[in-house]
Amino acid sequence: MPQPDPMVPEPAPMVAATPADAADIARLRDRLAHWMIDNGIGQWLPGEYPAATVASEAARGEWFVWRDSPGVLTAAVRLVWRDPEFWGEDDTPAGYIHGLMVAPEFRGRDLGTRIIQFCAARTLANGIARQRLDTAADNSVLRKYYTAQGFTEIRETELPPQFHGTSHVVLMEKLLRMH
User: Fold this and answer.
1) Which end of the chain offers a freer environment for a tag, N or C, measured as fewer CB atoms within 10 Å?
2) How far is CA 81 from CA 14, 94, 98, 120, 170, in A?
3) Residue 33 pLDDT > 80, yes or no?
């Protein structure tokens, strides 16, 4: 039996979110938005993504959560299969990753990598061999991070009008290997 590669962390133990998780997800996003503002990162704004929106998306099966213990939200991510809002006419079927969030107290544990791997596994399980995401064009830290995760920058575009933390995003893509 092949042994797991010790250099590759296990995928995250994410579970499908329910509308009952929406308030926790929105609260985590607001916490991270405040942190971004405090650290000069123009990406998310507090209150910009209300719990009601998250609840609707969770009801459609788009959100996943990671809780290490009951009541403690460790991380969350939204995964959708089309994204014309950000990608325009080029919303090729892909696993579109949005809202990848790790609670600040859990940073530095490679959880982001594990969440991206979770999304890759779900994407492949749906017969799709492409992941896509976006990040603020002026967020060089995340651009480098996603590049290190195997994503390639495709192009820069304007942020959809309902978001206001920045003006432009970079669209990134990663091709996955079907097994």
Assistant:
1) N
2) 18, 5, 11, 12, 18
3) yes
Structure tokens at 99: 């809202």
The mean pLDDT value for 9-15 works out to: 72
- Which strands form 63-69's sheet, in the order they lie side by side? 15-16, 63-69, 72-80, 95-102, 130-136, 168-175, 152-158
User: Tokens representing 134?
Assistant: 């976006």
Q: Residue 146 has what pLDDT? A: 96
Residues 6+ away with beta carbon under 8 Å from 40:
none
Q: How far apart are CA 97 and CA 107, in angstroms?
A: 19
Q: CB count, 10 Å around CB of 17?
A: 25
3-state secondary structure at position 19: helix
Q: What is the pLDDT of residue 3?
A: 42
First-to-last C-alpha distance (Å) of the chain: 17
